[in-house]
Structure to design on (594 residues):
């Protein structure tokens, strides 16, 4: 059994960047006065000459990143998901994605688990916003080990990437000895043919716990971790639709625009099956401790188990 | 500058204006006014100032140019063609389906274009990134960007200005094509962006005001910029929107409208007469 590491994915990201920078001097990091929160501060401390704080100017930060990439640097621009993808949407679209520049955008404090800061900072739209931009790759890793590998893959990939980071410290569940990350490929974490659960990001571990618990009751759920929301792994989704006939999606995001829609887009043409969506139902969040909010919004084990049973008529 | 050199530049700028008229007429759209006001600046940059190689557009030590006011690309395209990056006839296909010359600059399709632009305020940030890259790598190249005065109403311009001076980007030259007009009227009527020189100065720039149609002025400002250490330079170039075509000069309506057949003939005749005069 692998060691369980309890860490926010933002921190895993900061550490991974630092490690990658040792062997790649093209990597430069930009932040918008949030380095202590996005954890690019880890990189800044190690590589002060390759870190540039742009101040509270997200639009300019993305443009500067585009200029650096046009000169063959690999810029990583970090802020909260809300400001990186919301405030600077058009800069990302026109200055980064349209010319297909090699810029990595890191959006931290994504989702409801941002907690006490409340609705203005709980970004529930970033995946949808980024997914609609041509050329953009969208990653949403679920634990420490997946974030480390996703960061390596994002840097190795040539082109724009959006990577979603969480604020809340969470338990790891992957085993680094056996874990393998392939951009654009989902991971079947548990076999089963009664129904399929497709999860992304923080709720993957909650879904895993639910699935393991239900196994004791003789319910066999297939669990798929989608770390790459774009390009999405069509094959794994269609196979699951065909073999299990029913899908539940789980995401810490608005049910509009994110994983649920991405899955529906795949199945609707090639294998339409009923899809139940767990996520935030087209509303804003509010202040509160992260774990309480995750429970209230149905993103933890008890509600996931309940929904699986409902869908199976049990 | 000696008279021969000046005449050569005037010939090139007139050809760039002709290219602008040919391009926008054939496209039945585009932005002649600002293209014409910036034509002399583009001419000087590409034929006197910048170190570029048309045979090797991606040469990594080249000077960079970012047209932040991307809609004024017809005269930039003309200058790039005259410099040898591609054939001048491409102007006739400007904005057509499948054309190399897009409605706004596309670095992926057009040789010599260093940055894709068109959404105002964004190019200047990219120029900052390019200048910063030179500093990180200890490269000597310089970065030039042309903005519109109306464009300076975008907040991102001032975010970028703050960044450029904070990071001591003395290899960056921001040139404002101050033609005084924007889509809805004069810059004064619409948003009151002046005084631009004082604004850039307050943001930590060395600021120089010039006549943007006077090659001696452009030359001395750019030479002075090279002497400035530790901070970026902003050149506020006073220009005439529509410069070189009598009925377009200082007319708000010629921001984003193509000439019709009759207007096309008049414009070409005026510019060709000027060219014949210059070529003696």
């Amino acid at each position: 059994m692998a060691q369980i590491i309890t860490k926010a994915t933002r921190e895993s990201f900061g550490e991974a960047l630092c490690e990658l920078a040792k062997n790649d001097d093209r990597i430069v990091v930009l932040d918008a006065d949030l380095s202590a929160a996005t954890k690019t501060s880890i990189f800044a401390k190690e590589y002060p000459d390759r870190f540039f704080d742009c101040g509270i100017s997200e639009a300019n930060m993305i443009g500067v990143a585009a200029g650096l990439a046009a000169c063959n640097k690999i810029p990583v621009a970090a802020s909260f998901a809300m400001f990186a993808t919301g405030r600077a949407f058009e800069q990302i679209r026109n200055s980064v994605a349209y010319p297909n520049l090699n810029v990595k955008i890191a959006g931290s404090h994504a989702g409801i688990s941002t907690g006490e800061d409340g609705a203005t900072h709980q970004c529930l739209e970033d995946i949808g916003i980024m997914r609609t931009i041509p050329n953009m790759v969208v990653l949403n890793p679920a634990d420490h080990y997946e974030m480390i590998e996703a960061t390596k893959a994002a840097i190795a990939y040539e082109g724009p990437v959006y990577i979603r980071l969480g604020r809340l410290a969470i338990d790891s569940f992957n085993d680094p000895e056996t874990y393998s990350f392939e951009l654009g490929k989902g991971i079947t974490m548990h076999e089963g043919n009664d129904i399929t659960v497709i999860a992304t990001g923080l709720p993957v571990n909650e879904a895993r716990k639910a699935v393991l618990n239900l196994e004791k009751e003789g319910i066999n759920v297939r669990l798929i971790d989608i770390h790459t929301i774009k390009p999405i792994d069509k094959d794994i989704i269609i196979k699951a639709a065909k073999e299990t006939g029913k899908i539940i999606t789980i995401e810490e995001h608005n049910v509009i625009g994110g994983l649920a829609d991405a899955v529906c887009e795949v199945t609707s043409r090639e294998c339409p099956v009923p899809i139940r969506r767990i996520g935030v139902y087209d509303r804003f969040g509010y202040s509160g401790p992260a774990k309480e909010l995750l429970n209230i919004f149905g993103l933890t084990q008890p509600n996931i188990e309940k929904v699986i049973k409902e869908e199976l008529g049990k | 500058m000696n008279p021969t050199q000046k005449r050569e530049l005037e010939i090139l700028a007139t050809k760039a204006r002709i290219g602008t008229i040919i391009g926008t007429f054939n496209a039945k759209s585009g932005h002649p006014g600002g293209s014409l006001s910036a034509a002399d600046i583009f001419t000087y940059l590409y034929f006197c100032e910048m170190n570029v190689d048309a045979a090797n557009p991606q040469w990594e030590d080249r000077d960079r140019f970012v047209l932040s006011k991307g809609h004024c690309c017809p005269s930039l395209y003309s200058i790039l063609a005259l410099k040898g990056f591609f054939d001048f006839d491409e102007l006739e296909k400007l904005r057509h389906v499948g054309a190399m010359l897009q409605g706004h600059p596309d670095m992926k399709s057009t040789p010599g274009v260093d940055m894709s632009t068109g959404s105002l305020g964004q190019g200047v940030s990219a120029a900052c990134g390019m200048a910063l890259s030179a500093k990180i790598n200890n490269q000597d190249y310089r970065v030039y960007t042309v903005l519109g005065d109306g464009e300076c109403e975008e907040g991102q311009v001032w975010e970028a200005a703050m960044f450029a001076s904070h990071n001591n980007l003395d290899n960056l030259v921001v040139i404002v094509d101050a033609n005084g007009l924007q889509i809805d009227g004069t810059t004064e009527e619409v948003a009151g962006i002046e005084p631009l020189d004082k604004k850039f100065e307050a943001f930590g720039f060395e600021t120089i005001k010039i006549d943007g149609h006077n090659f001696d002025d452009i030359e001395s400002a750019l030479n002075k910029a090279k002497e400035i250490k530790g901070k970026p330079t902003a050149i506020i170039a006073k220009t005439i929107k529509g410069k070189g075509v009598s009925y377009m000069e200082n007319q708000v309506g010629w921001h984003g409208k193509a000439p019709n057949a009759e207007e096309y003939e008049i414009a070409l005749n005026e510019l060709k007469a000027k060219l014949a005069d210059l070529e003696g």
Q: What stands out?
A: The first strand of chain B starts at residue 64 and ends at 67.
